Amino acid sequence: xxxxxxLDEYLAENEFLxxxxxxxxxxxxxxxxxxxxxxxAREKVLELVNADKIPLLQRDDFRKNFLxxxxxxxTKKFPEQKISPELAEKLLQQDNHAVNEICASSELNxxxxxxxxxxxxxxxxxxxxxRLERDDWSENFCPICGRRPVMAQLKKFNEGRARYLSCGxxxxxWHWRRTSCPYCGCDDLEKIHIFEFDGKxxxxxxxxxxxxxxxxxxxxxxxxxxxxxxWATLHLDLLAEEKNLRKCGAVELE
Length: 254
Ligand SMILES: [Zn+2]
Ligand SMILES: [Zn+2]
Fold this sequence. Notes:
By secondary structure, the chain is α/β, with parallel strands linked by helices.
């Protein structure tokens, strides 16, 4: 297997992902002509969220306007899904109990609802807010939407590499102290393990014995378009599940 650069090449080599890929690519296509919102400049956003550690979209002064735009897009692009403004608000606030209840009582497929909602959020957040540098933010949750990371990436920095966390919901990438577990904060190196797959993959699992969570970590910097899409390495989640490891941060999970 040579180095894969395009998603098409990758999917040709990983035929079992075809159906999952078609679903996600269709979602992206439906949303492709949606414009991102005019949110405050990056410096302003960082100043705000760092002052009280409340993520941008969870702030009272932003949430309402942002949700209005989400609801408008959902109505236009996904009319059959019937995600009500109330449900959208609960999804954004991560009120899982309310989300469960509303989906059950409206007979909505919760996984599909969550995927559509967060894909819409991702699309509405401007790209320039999603690429944060080393000292921009240091928490273990996303500065934009507040969710836990779903993946990580190692990027070259001086002689070594720095670790960045990736939000599976809104697509933000932010720096994280390299050795500790982003889910429970454990920094006992005896308890953090790296699980690598034989030779071929540029993804590894960082496993924490303290909380049992794992984090799929992409070790290179050229094919984010493949390896930072959570669904594109679904097979690694299945392997992790066989090892009784716990996945965190995925949009379809609570
Ligand atoms: Zn986010
Ligand atoms: Zn942990």
